[in-house]
Design brief:
Layout lengths: L3 E2 L3 E4 L19 H15 L4 E7 L7 H5 L4 E6 L2 E7 L8 E2 L13 E7 L4 H16 L4 E7 L3 H7 L4 E4 L2 E3 L7 H15 L1
Helix pairs in contact: 3-5
């Protein structure tokens, strides 16, 4: 469920090769990401896609836009540090566009309201969600925690995003996922302001 709009395009939600020190070991920088992307492109072409879209970060962290650019992807749209990239497979393909943020959460008077839109596709957001839920429960009845199931496309279009975390009406950056301590500290600060 991508937070982008396009026609006849497939979307890469995440490519991440882990660098484990134990178990199977570190497979980063060995071509696995490239192989995964190439396999996804071949599959999309077989299914009749006119192109492939992906998102990347403009800064050198995970899901780098520059990594996709090296594989023939071109920028199509930008929103903050997130770059929407695409690779057309046919001449009649049209570039995708980000769905712009459209809605902010309602708050509960006299309480800190934590709202989490959760789609489930992003491991980083899933981690931030669990950390926020735990912190909210530990701060007691002065914090209201709401989950918005963003699995349906209509919800994504209504909010303009598939995954987000808000403390009151301020969005919290979730990639890379903030630590539990950082999330809890932000919530506790808002609780303290309630008096």
């Amino acid at each position: 469920m991508a937070s982008a709009e396009g026609k006849d395009l497939y979307f890469v939600l995440c490519i991440w090769v882990h660098g484990h020190k134990k178990g199977q070991g570190n497979f980063q920088k060995r071509g696995m990401g490239k192989a995964l992307l190439q396999a996804a492109e071949e599959d999309a072409k077989k299914r009749g896609a006119k192109g492939m879209a992906a998102w990347g970060m403009a800064i050198p962290v995970f899901m780098r836009a520059s990594w996709f650019k090296k594989r023939g992807y071109k920028p199509a749209d930008k929103m903050g540090m997130q770059v929407l990239l695409w690779k057309p497979f046919s001449e009649d393909a049209r570039p995708p566009r980000w769905i712009k943020p459209r809605k902010t959460p309602e708050t509960t008077p006299g309480k800190v309201t934590v709202t989490a839109l959760l789609n489930g596709w992003c491991p980083a957001m899933n981690m931030a969600f669990e950390r926020a839920r735990r912190a909210a429960s530990e701060l007691g009845d002065r914090v209201v925690f709401r989950t918005v199931d963003a699995f349906n496309r209509e919800v994504i279009l209504e909010w303009g995003t598939s995954d987000a975390l808000f403390i009151d009406q301020k969005q919290v950056r979730t990639g890379p996922p903030p630590s539990y301590e950082k999330i809890r500290k932000r919530m506790a600060k808002r609780v303290k302001k309630l008096g």
